[in-house]
């Protein structure tokens, strides 16, 4: 089974969006470079960020996200972001009316079931869990092997927390740190 990674861009003070779900400048590092990160050419990063991020993206076989994020993005128009093969949506509701059942999205009730389904779909590849409430639930359930964050030099002051509402201590190993332009890429193994 593949490694389960909790991931997102995050402000220095630990937020993935403001109170209105606006990520603001958190994604500026994705358009501040000269190296295309994907085939669209719209996402351009520094060479250092490309080497780190592209290698990570290429390993991800499935992403777990909450229904809130799915709804905010309009289900990415039925195409998983970043070239991911599958998205597993944690939800207590059915797919939206008119949703194409052939789209590589899987609607699952509960974080544990969602991570299990994502692991099946990803095989030996990585399972990415979106940070925020779903990621925090997965961490609290002991399902996360690694925490990755792209720390952007901005302070939000309030908003949606990277770890959601986690209310217990979780120890991480020493970080791997990569400095890109306008971003620090941090990678921590979860201590067991």
From TrEMBL:
InterPro entries assigned: DHFR-like_dom_sf (IPR024072), RibDG_C (IPR002734)
Bacterial bifunctional deaminase-reductase C-terminal domain ranges (all copies): 4-174
Family annotation (SUPFAM superfamilies): Dihydrofolate reductase-like
A Pfam family it matches: RibD_C
Protein name, as recorded: Bacterial bifunctional deaminase-reductase C-terminal domain-containing protein
Natural source organism: Asanoa siamensis
């Amino acid at each position: 089974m593949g490694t389960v990674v909790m991931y997102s861009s995050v402000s220095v003070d630990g937020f993935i969006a403001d109170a209105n779900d606006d990520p603001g400048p958190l994604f500026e590092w994705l358009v501040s470079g000269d190296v295309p990160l994907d085939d669209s050419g719209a996402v351009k990063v520094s060479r250092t960020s490309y080497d780190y991020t592209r290698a990570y993206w290429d390993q991800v076989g499935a992403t777990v996200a909450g229904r809130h994020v799915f709804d905010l993005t309009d289900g990415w128009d039925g195409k998983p972001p970043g070239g991911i093969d599958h998205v597993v949506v944690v939800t207590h509701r059915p797919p939206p009316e008119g949703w194409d059942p052939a789209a590589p999205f899987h609607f699952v009730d509960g974080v544990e079931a969602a991570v299990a389904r994502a692991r099946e779909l990803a095989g030996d590849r990585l399972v990415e869990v979106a940070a925020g409430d779903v990621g925090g639930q997965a961490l609290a359930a002991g399902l996360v092997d690694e925490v990755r964050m792209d720390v952007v030099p901005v302070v939000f002051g309030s908003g949606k927390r990277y770890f959601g509402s986690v209310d217990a201590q979780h120890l991480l190993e020493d970080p791997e740190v990569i400095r890109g332009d306008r971003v620090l890429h941090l990678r921590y193994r979860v201590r067991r």
